[in-house]
Each structure stands twice: as C-alpha cells, then as structure tokens.
Specification:
- By secondary structure, the chain is α/β, with parallel strands linked by helices.
- The protein has two domains: 14-237, Spore Coat Polysaccharide Biosynthesis Protein SpsA, Chain A (Alpha-Beta Complex); 267-455, Hexapeptide repeat proteins (UDP N-Acetylglucosamine Acyltransferase, domain 1, 3 Solenoid), CATH 2.160.10.10.
- Helices cover 17% and strands 32% of the residues.
- The strands form five sheets. The chain has a 22-stranded parallel sheet that branches. It has a seven-stranded mixed sheet with strand order 5-4-1-6-10-7-11, sandwiched between helices.
- β2 (37-38) and β3 form a beta hairpin.
- The longest helix is centred in the middle third of the chain and has 21 residues, at 243-263.
- The termini are far apart.
- The relative contact order is 0.07.
- The structure holds uridine-diphosphate-N-acetylglucosamine (UD1) and calcium ion.
- Uridine-diphosphate-N-acetylglucosamine is lined by residues 19-22, 62, 88, 91-94, 96-97, 115-117, 151-152, 166, 168, 182-185, 211-213, 239.
Length: 473
C-alpha cells in the first residue's frame, strides 16, 4: 500500500452501506423496523433518498430480519446508484453486518456507513464527513448528549485530543461512562482501510458481538488519523427503537417542516398541529388551520385557505380556493385539482380524477370522483358525481347522483352548460343532459335529453281527498 500520509488523497466515489438487518424488538411489530414510517415514508426510504442525493455510486443494504420485505420496499431502486443487498444471517453485530457488505465494496471508494433506523441524517452532514475522511482518514460523526446512556463513548487522548477508541456503553468503565460525546453510528472511511480492519474484528466483549466501532482502535494502532465531526443537530442522528421514539421523532420532524413553511410565509394556525407526509408547495399568503394532514404531492396557490381538520393528498389547489373544515381530498395516482376561487366543503370528498374549474362550489357531503366540473358549476349538498363531465354554471341538486356503474362497467354522464338538475335525481349513465336543460326533482333519467328541455321522470302525483288513516281497533 503506498500511502502519502501528509497529503489528502481524492475521496473517490462514494459507496454506502445501510445496516438494516436488526430485528427492532422494541417496536413489538411484525413489520421490520426500517419499514415503519416517518413523515409518511419508510425509515429506510429516507436514508435511501439521502444516499441518492449525495450522488453515491453504489448502495449496499444489509438485510436480515424481514429481508424479503425490506428488499422489496426498494424495488424502484435508488436514483443514480447501483443498489445491492447483502444478507446477514444471523445478526452478529454491526461489524458483522458491514463484513457481509465488504465483498461488494470496490477498493477505490469512500465507504459511508449508515443505519436504516436513523432516518434524518442530512446530506450536508454526510458531505462534510466524506470531506473529513479525505480518502485517508477514518471520519466519525459524533454528538454530545446530556444523557449518553446506551451509546458508544468517544474516547480521546489525554487533554481531549485524538480519538483513540469507541467504547460501547456495556463495555465502558465508570470513568468512560461520564464521557458525553457519543458515536452516532455514522462513519466515512476509505474502503481499502475499512476492509483491512473488518478482517481483524472479534467478538470478545460484553455483548459477544462484532462491533464495527472496534475499527477505531485499529485505525489508532495503524497510525491512521481518526477525526470526529461533531454535529449539534440531534434530529439527524436520532435512531428509532420504539414506538415512543418514532412518535417523538415524527413530532420533531413535523415541527421542522412546519417551521420551514412558516419561514416561506405560510400561515399555520398551530405548527404543533400540522402534518406533512410528502411535499407541500405553497404560493404566497396561504393559510392552514389546525389538524390538517398533507400527503403525497400537494400544491397550494396564492391565498388558498385550508380549514381545520382537512386531509389533502396528491392535489393541486389553485389561487384563492377555500377548502372548508373536515374535507377529504385524495387524488391518489390520477390527481385532484381545485380551480381558482373554488369553494369546497365543509365535509366534502374529492377522489382521484376530480377536476374542479374556477369558482366551482362543492358543499357538504358531496363526493366527486373522476369528474370534470367546468367553471361556476355547483353541487352544494349531499350529492355524488362519478365519471361525469359537468358544464359551466350547472346547478346539481341536493341528493342527486350519477348511477355510473351497471354492476360490470363504468359509464359516463355528460351534463351540458347551464343545466339544472333538481333534488334527488338519478342520472343513469351513459347519458347526456343537453345544455340549458332542466331535470325535475326526484327524476330517474336513463335516456339522453335535448338542449333546453324540461325532463320529469317520476310517478305522477295522486291525491285522495279526505283520506282517513286506519284507526286502532
Ligand atoms: C451502535 C454503535 C454505538 C452507537 C449507536 C448509535 C456499534 C457496536 N455500536 O450501537 O457506538 O452509539 O449505534 O445509535 O456499532 N444491525 C445490523 N446487524 C446487526 C446489528 C445491527 O444490521 O447484526 C443494524 C441495526 O438494524 C441498526 C444498526 O445496525 O440499524 C445499529 O444497530 P444497533 O443494535 O441499534 O446499534 P447500537 O447497539 O445502538
Ligand atoms: Ca445493539
């Protein structure tokens, strides 16, 4: 090996190892720990996303418990990187985990070791760590905790100098346990050095495990510099071991997302009662009341107001629209769109393919699925519009529905401009209601109607004068 100790070598390409074989016993769940969700995404997906963003050449995920399920969760790959899996069976410790990945790691790269259960590790932090490793050093991400119980302690030479070892909590002396600087579980190291050290690991310690952290003492013994990059951001290194920790990190993450939105000018009634499980793109002067949940990709135009207790997923809401309380919008794959100045809710439901034009009104207990409503159309109460094309200024009465499903196939309903559909009508699709037409309340209509016509399709009203109701005998 010809090393020039004084000069930094090039860090080379980055290869990432994500340890994800552990059981996560304390989650008490049949779902593998790394597949539990934070902000709507699997813990492992957060880490994989960060790996993609730093431009990793390859990613090796070490799997064991629930391996098939964990591997399937990364079916769509990691953008720009070669994704491979190394099975670790049984799980004999973090050092053993990385040993399983070692044969897949080229010698010319810098290896970054991450944990699948530490979801919020940041891109910038990893870049800084890779720079600190500089192709020739072992770089450790560390942090100071008031309560370091359970963590590996960073042991330095007298006077707080060079890092000489990491000692696991269970192996630490009383004096070592007073050290508050802990190892986060994240390191960057040249592959060729790491591989040499992995071959020297043993399990003679309090837990009988192969500790990855033992590489630090080998580095010190070999005269390889060890640098600690101390972070102040506890969220980035927070690991998940229990439902309580998952919930706590979720709240912390949500607060961080809420603060970032408020920073952009979004007015949140209460940042502690806000949940974003995806991406939220907001124009100016957006107001969001308490207890709203945003999922998938949502965009809110200028001046949009979202009332309390709304769930909005995969939707675009244009400028000036108002979503009143308790409304559920889920565009799923097809998406949902609410046009400028539209009013939706309270208690409305927009499903995939709902496309509302400007100034459309959708009122309480109205469901819209795979339907286009032209500007100014209104369905204000207790109605269903499925697979419908609704013209401009249509008024769709309370209790009316499109009967779009014949038990086997879905059919379309076309309602022309300026049509009035009375209350409690059934429009049996396929059907076209001609522009300007009127459908009398209570009609069941199964034949298309001419423009401008009044159509009434219901039993004729019959009255019997002086009708005597039966009397009890
Ligand atoms: C590890 C570090 C400790 C550090 C802490 C930070 C070691 C020996 N100790 O301890 O210094 O302070 O992280 O959180 O590395 N895993 C496997 N296979 C195994 C064992 C673990 O894939 O055989 C995975 C786990 O699923 C987890 C990660 O490695 O994602 C870390 O394992 P964990 O047991 O949580 O490590 P700690 O004991 O917390
Ligand atoms: Ca452990």
């Amino acid at each position: 090996m010809n090393q020039t100790p004084q000069q930094d070598s090039k860090p080379g390409p980055v290869d990432i190892v994500i340890m994800a074989a552990g059981k996560g016993t304390r989650m008490k769940s049949r779902l593998p720990k790394v597949l539990h969700r934070l902000g709507g995404r699997a813990l492992l997906a957060h880490v994989a996303g960060t790996a993609a963003r730093i431009g990793a050449r390859s990613v090796v995920v070490v799997t064991g418990h629930g391996a098939a399920e964990v591997e399937a969760s990364l079916d769509s790959g990691i953008a720009g990187a070669t994704l491979r899996f190394a099975r670790q069976e049984p799980q004999l410790g973090t050092g053993h985990a990385v040993q399983q990945a070692a044969p897949l790691l080229p010698d010319d790269g810098t290896v970054v070791v991450l944990s699948g259960d530490v979801p919020l590790i940041g891109e910038d932090t990893l870049r800084a760590l890779i720079a600190a490793s500089a192709g020739r050093r072992l770089a450790l991400l560390t942090i100071e905790f008031d309560d370091p119980t359970g963590y590996g302690r960073v042991i330095r030479a007298a006077g707080g100098g060079e890092v000489t070892a990491i000692v696991e909590h269970k192996d630490a002396s009383e004096a070592q346990r007073t050290v508050r600087e802990i190892y986060s579980g994240v390191m960057a190291v040249p592959a060729r050095l790491l591989k040499g050290w992995l071959a020297r690991l043993d399990n003679r310690n309090a837990q009988g495990e192969y500790y990855l952290t033992d590489v630090v003492k080998f580095a010190a013994a070999d005269g390889v510099p060890v640098v600690a990059h101390v972070t102040a951001d506890a969220l980035q290194v927070a690991g998940i071991n229990s439902p309580a920790q998952l919930a706590a990190l979720e709240r912390a993450w949500q607060l961080r997302q809420a603060n970032a939105l408020m920073e952009q000018g979004v007015r949140l009634a209460d940042p502690a009662r806000f949940d974003l499980r995806g991406t939220l793109d907001c124009a100016g002067d957006v107001e969001i009341d308490v207890n709203c949940i945003f999922e998938g990709a949502v965009s809110l135009g200028e001046g949009v107001r979202i009332g309390a207790n709304c769930v909005v997923a995969n939707a675009r809401i244009e400028a000036g629209a108002v979503i009143h309380p308790f409304t559920h919008i889920d565009g799923e794959k097809a998406g949902a769109m609410v046009g400028a100045g539209a009013l939706v809710g309270p208690f409305a439901r927009l499903r995939p393919g709902a496309q509302l034009g400007a100034e459309v009104h959708i009122g309480n207990f109205v469901e819209v699925k795979n339907s286009t409503l032209a500007p100014g159309a209104k369905a204000n109460h207790l109605a269903y519009l499925g697979d419908a094309t609704v013209g401009e200024r249509v008024n769709y009465g309370a209790g009316s529905i499109t009967a779009n499903y014949d038990g086997a196939n879905k059919h379309r309903t076309v309602i022309g401009d300026d049509v009035h559909v009375g209350s409690n009508c059934v429009l049996v699709a396929p059907i076209t209601i001609g522009a300007g037409g009127t459908i009398g309340g209570g009609s069941t209509v199964n034949k298309s109607t001419e423009p401008g016509a009044l159509t009434v399709a219901r039993g004729k009203q019959v009255s019997f004068s002086n009708w005597k109701r039966p009397q009890k005998k």
